[in-house]
Every structure is written in structure tokens, then in C-alpha cells.
Amino acid sequence: MRCALFAVAAVTLTTALSPHAQAQGRQFVPPTCDVPKGHYLVNSAVLYLQNAGRTRFEDQRQRDLRDARRVLLEAVEEKGQDQNGSAWYYLARYYQSVRDLPGADSAFDRAERMLPGCLADINENRRRLWVPILNAGVDRIRATDNEGALTQLREAITIYDAEPAAHFYMGQIFASMQLRDSAIAYYAQALEIARRPENLAKEQYADIRDNAEFNIARLYHIDNKYDSAVVWYMRFRQHKPMDAQATTGQASALEAAGRAAEALALYDSVLVMADSMTTLDLFQAGVALFRTQRFGRAAEAFERGLERNPHYRDALYNLANTYLSLAHAIDSTTRGAVRDSLEREFGIKMAPVTARLVAGDPASTAARRLQAAAFQLAGEQDSTLAALERIEAMTYEITVSTFEQAGSGFDMRGIITNLRSEATTVPPLTFEFVNEQGDIVQTIVLDGQTLEADGIAPFALAPVGEGMAAWRYRAES
User: Fold this and answer.
1) Which of 46, 116, 170, 232 could bridge to 186 as Cys pair (CB 3.0-4.6 Å)?
2) Of 164, 288, 300, the residue nearest 221 (C-alpha)
3) Angle between helices 146-159 and 165-176 (to 10 degrees)
4) Mind listing the pLDDT tens digit for each residue in 289-321?
5) Distance between CA 208 and CA 205 in Å, rounded?
6) Are 414 and 459 in contact (CB under 8 A)?
7) How many CA atoms are closer than 13 Å to the CA of 125, on its beta-carbon side?
8) Domains by residue range for the chain, with CATH
9) Structure pTM?
């Protein structure tokens, strides 16, 4: 499931070097193809490059590399070897050794033309330069340094463009910067590269193929280019026909393009597919339907998902909000007792949902406000007042911002916020991680602490266990 659009974490890539390349390190490894030396200056350069790879002394290494460069340039500039592919190949290997990317790229280009049998070897050497640059770019993205990341990724693309990762990440950055035309262009390039025959069978690029198509559709949709969005959603759904986000996205684009009948059929198909959808996909379908203001269908998606996993906090929260939105969407011409009756029905539906929500997330002001709203819609004024008083009495709040699968467990992150302008004590908090049946898979206790006035305390938990599907917590007295 797509947890977040345009996020770096959406794609996991293998960016390691091959065992052959890893073994090289600083050592010069001979080419794996036929590169005839021929000219005496080229022979000398090979010896210099080999010596530079063997020596333990940096000053000697630098002298050998300078000598390799000197004799190779003499060969191509003064000794008529400018059409000798071997000279350009070893000149590229020199530039590779000193991390001169433009020099390596240019020399490898010439060597490719003159030594076509060495394409695989040249690509391996290009990739050896590419991997650390790509990884440095990803590190920059994670540090929210977009400009630094773009610099690194452009360098990566310069030296090697046979794999799609750098293009995809550039699309991610431009999408996050709202530069949608550039994002679409780089996503399209990533998709084209990922679909090349040599990459098509590589499992690590399946996410790029899927996410690039989907994100192009989303970007066209955001730009109100609905016909293009429909085309790209349809392309994505050719191989992911049950994807709820793509289905609702396509329906929304069709509706905006004036194709209402087609849109309605797709909206209906989301819930028709419910039995074959995963629980999380049902919840995501509910979110997508809510965003298109299909509140009734959104409620049904959340309800059906909660039948399978009745403990999922975000779905409880979203279902309560959906009922509230349905109450607010009552026709403004409906007045008096009829309106009160309709609102009361939604309040009655909300009440048990918000009760479960507050039971599992008791230190959330947002959850408690939804409970107060449920009481108010149901006409229970005393309960409404009591709920509001409980909110006013709260001294701290817990906000869980992340609960994502990570390996055999989950990564949970959140913050505890002091709601007071004076120091407050937060008691020990017992987090229970449960399966869909509500059975406890693991329990983790977060130690009690004192927060300074208006202070916050981030926390991170890493529960592990089979079948984990939801969380809840309680404050220890």
C-alpha cells in the first residue's frame, strides 16, 4: 500500500556494488573485456594504474596516478592515439580513480564507441562511481537538503543512467517542491529505464515502475489535467486493477472531466472489490472516498475494514470524522425536528466508535473532541459538557505520528506534549500492540517523566511480533 505519495520511503532499492566491484576498493582490477594495450604509452599507463592500486602510501599513489594521466594524454594528444579505444578506456579508469566524473564520462563515451565489446565492463565501472553518489543523494533527501540532493543525483545521472533510481528520486524531490512538470519528466524517464528488458526482471525496480506511473497520474490530477490523469491511472490499473487509490483517483478525475457516469461506476466498484481487498487497502479506499466527499461510501469502506480489524486507531478516527461530515452535509433546507432527528442518528452512530477510539488513545484531544461532538449530535448535553471538561483537565497529550511496518515489526514514532504553562508529570505509559482479534502480541512500557512548561518529548518504539495490526495504550496510576 502507498503510505504516502512522493515519499522517499516509498521505494526500497538495492544500491550495492557487485561482488566484483566491491573487491576492487582502491586496487586496480583488470578489465573483464578485451582491451589491447598496443602502444607503449598505454602499456606504461596500465603499470602506473596497477602500482597506484597496490601501494599503501598515499603520496606514492598520487604520483602513480599523475604519471598515468601524463602518459595517456601524451598518447592521445601527441602520439596519434586519439582513435585508440584502449587509450581512452584507461584514461577513463584514471578519471574513475580520482573521482573526476565529467572526465570519466567523456572518456568512457569514447571507449564505448571504439570498444563495443567492453560495454558491460564500462557500465560496471560507471555503476561503481554511481552507487556512492546515489546513496549520498538519498542521505541528503532524508536530511531535507533538496538542493544538495539534486546536485548529487544530477552527478549520478551524468556518470550512469542504465538504472532508474536517480531519476525517480529527482522526480520525488521536484514533486515535493511543487515543480510538477519537472517531476513528471523525471518520473517518465525513470519509468522508461525501469521498463528496459535488462531491468524489467529486477524485483527492486517493481516499486519504481508502479510508483512512477501512479505519481504521474496524481501530478496531472493535481494540475487539473484530468484527461491525462485518467490515462495514467488506467495504465497503472492495467496491472494493479484492485488498487483502491488508483481506482478512486481515476473516478475523481473522470468526474472532474465531466464523465460522471464512468466516475460513478468506478466509485461503486471500490466497494464491490471490498472482499478481495486487504484491510489496509479498505481503509485507504475510505480515505480516498472521503477526499472526494463521497462520505457515505467512505463510511462503508471504514466500517467494512473495521469489521476485520476493529482496533485500528486511524480507521476509528476517520470513521468518526466521516459520520460528523455526513451530519454537517445535511441539506441546509432541512430544519427543526427533522434535522435534529437526522443529526441524532449520526451522533448515535459516532458514540460507540469514539468510545473505542478514546479507550485506545485516551490522551488525544482530537479523539476526545470527536467524542464530545458525538454526544452533542445525539442531544446528550450532560455527556457533552463532561467530555469538554475532561479535555480542559488534560495536562499532556500523546500524538502518534507514525506506525509503519518495518521488517518483522513496526516503527512507531510520536510526541508527548505538555498542555500546561508549568511543569507536568507524565505517568508510565503501557503500549499494547495487538492483532486483528485484539490479542496482545507485545507490550512496551514507556517510562514516566516530567515535562517542562509547554515542553515536548518525542518517543520511538519498535514492537516486533507476528500478526501485529494495531496499537493502544493506557496511563499507569
Assistant:
1) 170
2) 288
3) 150
4) 888 788 998 999 999 999 999 999 999 999 999
5) 5
6) yes
7) 31
8) 34-114 (no CATH), 178-393 (1.25.40.10), 396-475 (2.60.40.3230)
9) 0.65
